[in-house]
Amino acid sequence: MGADPAAEVASAPDEDMDEDVICRYCLDGTESGELISPCECKGGQKYVHLSCLRQWQRMVLVSQPTHPALYGDDIRHQTCNVCKTSFTCPPPTRHELMQSFTGHEIAALIETGCVIGAHEIFSKELENKLEEMPEFARSMCGYDNWIHGVYLITGVDVEDGIQRLPLTSKRELERLRRELSTGLAISARGNQFRLIPEGSLSGVKDADLGVALSALEPPCELVLIQDPKPDCGDDHITAVGLQRQLRTPIRQNEVDRVLQSVCSKYPRAKKVELSYFIGGPCDKDRIVSCLVLGASHHGWKSVEKLEDALHLACSLQRRQAEQGDFGCGQTVRLHGLQGRADLNDEVGLTLQFLQGPGRWMVRLRNGDGVKVKPGNLEGIRGEHGQVYIFWGDARWSRTQLLGEIARGHWGLGKASIADLSLPAADRWRGLDGRLAFAPETAMTEDFMRDGSQQMARLRALARDHGVGDGEASGDDN
């Protein structure tokens, strides 16, 4: 990002100064880069390198929490702490600063079809904290959601900045009237929102909004828009946890009700294999999404409602004699291959039966697709389809997730069939070598940095003595 035209550039010593022009942060001159005057400071405080100012703003960010509900607009990003005037060169957004810690390659992996995995050191830190907690507090902290976490990103929704507020009582309406400033704006979660002529005020001219608001009676709906508009850092990221499988559903009656309804139209729905998971801490008491295995080229499709998931799973089960005893979305093992003997015992998921060659398209755990005759397949589970059902999910803003990745807590990678076909207890280990983690920076938490150094020493010692990594790290698995 270049210097703002409004910022004065230093090309020669200040006429009011006898000494050389230097940056007040690094104390170097123009030999280390262009100097600008971004505020009203005079004398030795006047000039800075833009890169040094950006570094200062990055360090301010390091001191803040990553959750958007816990941080606000830090005045030090925008205002000189010496002369107290606003910088003439606008600061980078929080999202841009977070990207500078993680790198663009990792930031680009925040998309549907990618997987988020907890770092081993992060998991151990949470386990240690759990052990120190009183028994009653353990179930309340939510750490079980993150320890050895494996989360499949199922949605990336663009934030439009629109907030719709349904108001059912006079008390709610009066409270909002008081909180709205004279400019009909309100500050929330570090952002500014202003009232617009939508909802119950639809058609009202901007100049008349204040009068119309005063005359409004409940029930009504007010609509506010974020100003300035949100950037991509405000996008909503949704993911479901694949590591906490349940033996029985949280609400059996809810599943039974849906099954009964679907089976009345599609009797074979009762044969679909259902697996249940705690998907995350948000809305954990209701089914928020389902995965239908075999429903797309990469091996799964995310569906919001259980009814729709069962319908889709049933639609994939049209059988023909040439298919053998296999259906779409079934977990299978390859065997008896002659030309590709290296693939024998590999596990994959059936995606589609190809009539011409008479072969199944199978997606393997490493992501490869192969065409296999039914005679070279052995069914493992899900002969009549598989649906994963999730109670709850995990949600972040894009910037928040980047912040947690920058802290060192999580890595990112492309999801594969292994993340669905391995036993739930093995899925975290199945991510070994597949995830990209942020480099160590000022954002890296101390326990992550110390843990990494300790692990590096143990692994070096293990190599010297011919010991495996699992033994060196004290891993019993």
Summarize this structure briefly.
The protein is of the alpha+beta class.
Mind explaining what this structure looks like?
With 477 residues, this protein is α+β, with helices and mostly antiparallel strands. Among the domains are: 8-92, Herpes Virus-1 (2-Layer Sandwich), CATH 3.30.40; 162-229; 321-381, SH3 type barrels (Roll), CATH 2.30.30.30; 445-477. It contains 14 helices and 21 strands. Strands 4, 5, 10, 11, 12, 13, 14, 20 and 21 form a nine-stranded mixed sheet that branches. A five-stranded antiparallel sheet has the order 18-17-16-15-19, with no helix packed on it. A hairpin with a 6-residue loop joins strand 13 (282-293) and strand 14 (300-303). Helix 3 packs parallel to helix 11 and helix 9 packs across helix 10. The radius of gyration is 28 Å and the shape is globular.
